[in-house]
Amino acid sequence: MFNIIKVNNEQQFNETGAGIIASLLQTNPRATLGLATGGTPVGVYKHLIELYKQGLVSFKDARSYNLDEYIGLPEDHSESYRRFMNEKLFNHVDIDPSNTHVPSGVSGDGHKAAAEYNLLLEKAGQIDLQLLGLGHNGHIGFNEPAEHLTAATHVVELDEVTRKANARYFNSIDEVPTHAITMGIGSILKAKQILLMAKGADKAEIVAKALKGPITTQCPASLLQLHPNVVVIVDQEAGGLL
Ligand code: F6R
């Protein structure tokens, strides 16, 4: 079930997203957060850092589990998701680094690393709030459109659409990894609450498909229609076809 919040500008977008995460931490300081990377949450994390600096939120007792990581990028690579999280959020708030989790993309055996991450998730218990961005092809995490989707954390081959979209962060598309480790759809759907965020006109079509279209593995985000508690934050552009 979707609770759709349409905001008017970037500032509202970021403040609303950060506000939802902050109120969770205020009522449940030991919350388990599922976090995302990409362009969408950057401003949300920035605002959370401001709230932390103002003494309005603390991550001291929180734990976090990220959705995904590229295979083959060392943690200190400028585009690794571990580095993204450290730089965009973790280094600036009081979260205990040992309570932050991102799949390892450099263990040498991606499948083993995925299985280990999945075990970690199972031990962690239920994620209280899972933050999600939305890929242009309807992916969530790196669960790409396919005939079959996988429930648990697994290795995935990235779609060309995804590699092209993410090439903007690399020198060329050839540098974009071909594979990633991602939480599976089952793990995502197990979260108590999901916060899906999308902004920009280029997301309008896929937002409408995901929220109002048929439930299909060809649009993995459409499976969110089966979840009882999804908050969706869109700007006017991304929500234009709703
Ligand atoms: C990131 C992730 C991806 C992105 C999606 C949207 O951890 O799992 O699903 O959320 O590709 O990316 P942006 O926000 O860059 O449009």
From TrEMBL:
Catalytic activity: alpha-D-glucosamine 6-phosphate + H2O = beta-D-fructose 6-phosphate + NH4(+)
Start and end residues of each Glucosamine/galactosamine-6-phosphate isomerase domain: 18-226
Listed GO biological process terms: carbohydrate metabolic process; glucosamine catabolic process; N-acetylglucosamine catabolic process; N-acetylneuraminate catabolic process
InterPro entries listed in its UniProt record: Glc/Gal-6P_isomerase (IPR006148), Glucosamine6P_isomerase (IPR004547), Glucosamine6P_isomerase_CS (IPR018321), NagB/RpiA_transferase-like (IPR037171)
GO CC terms: cytoplasm
Keywords for this protein: Carbohydrate metabolism, Hydrolase
Enzyme Commission code(s) on record: 3.5.99.6
Pathway it works in: Amino-sugar metabolism; N-acetylneuraminate degradation; D-fructose 6-phosphate from N-acetylneuraminate: step 5/5
Pfam families in UniProt: Glucosamine_iso
GO molecular function terms listed in the Swiss-Prot or TrEMBL record: glucosamine-6-phosphate deaminase activity; identical protein binding
PROSITE patterns attached to this UniProt entry: GLC_GALNAC_ISOMERASE
CDD domains, per database record: GlcN6P_deaminase
Superkingdom in the source lineage: Bacteria
Signal peptide: none
Stated role: Catalyzes the reversible isomerization-deamination of glucosamine 6-phosphate (GlcN6P) to form fructose 6-phosphate (Fru6P) and ammonium ion.
PANTHER family in alphabetical order: GLUCOSAMINE-6-PHOSPHATE ISOMERASE
Entry's family note: Belongs to the glucosamine/galactosamine-6-phosphate isomerase family. NagB subfamily.
Protein name: Glucosamine-6-phosphate deaminase
